[in-house]
Write a structure and sequence with these properties.
Helix content: 25-40%
Pfam family, one: His_Phos_1
Low-confidence stretches: none
Protein name: Histidine phosphatase family protein
Keywords: Hydrolase
Strand order of the largest sheet: 3-2-4-1-5-6
InterPro entries: His_Pase_superF_clade-1, His_PPase_superfam, PG/BPGM_mutase_AS, Phosphoglycerate_Mutase
GO molecular function: fructose-2,6-bisphosphate 2-phosphatase activity
Radius of gyration: 16 Å
Order of helices and strands: EHHEHEHHHEHEEH
CATH topology: Rossmann fold
Number of domains: 1
Number of helices: 8
Mean pLDDT: 95
CATH architecture: 3-Layer(aba) Sandwich
Amino acid sequence: MATEITIIRHGETIWNAQRRIQGQRNSKLSENGILQAELVAKALDKRQFDILISSDLERAVETARIINTQLVLPHEYNVKLRERSFGVVEGLNFEEMKHQYPDEFRRYKERDPEFAFPGGESIQQLFNRVTVEIEDIARKFDQQKVLIVSHGLVLEMMMYKTFSINLTDPRTFSINNSSISSFYIDGANWFLKEWGVIEHLVSRNVLNEL
């Protein structure tokens, strides 16, 4: 039997709204992000989970805490579920990044899996970190239902793993803040149950997409 992993992207942050690269730096949830977290908490209330695991970055922790006021689950913090590290460009918007680091920006846009900004992490390193850790979590909580609060590129890597997408290929799917996605994981076998559920957000016009 597989482990069911439901994963939530954290609520919108102030830097999300400003289109700044967050990476592993902290930015607080915006008012919109707090509302998103409250809405996803209500959407999850009728589901059953055994454990809540979040990235240890502030935006994921805050989202998880809001969700857990509704669910009241054991809550673990996991550094390996952090967002990709973008090194020296964290805190910059895309125009600033393009101006200050033109060569690095070009390689970033080319989606070279081995490229990392100085002090940062490559797509390949992120993929390895995320997929190994998710499989470890699935083994640890075998046949249980795990709720995770993490980050957009963590979700992206999970989709690339599930469908064996080449890391050089551009992403062709949306990742909304506080959307709900679920996977079944059985050893090295990954199956998608649902992706990017946003019904709880649509009526309140609080969407924010990566």
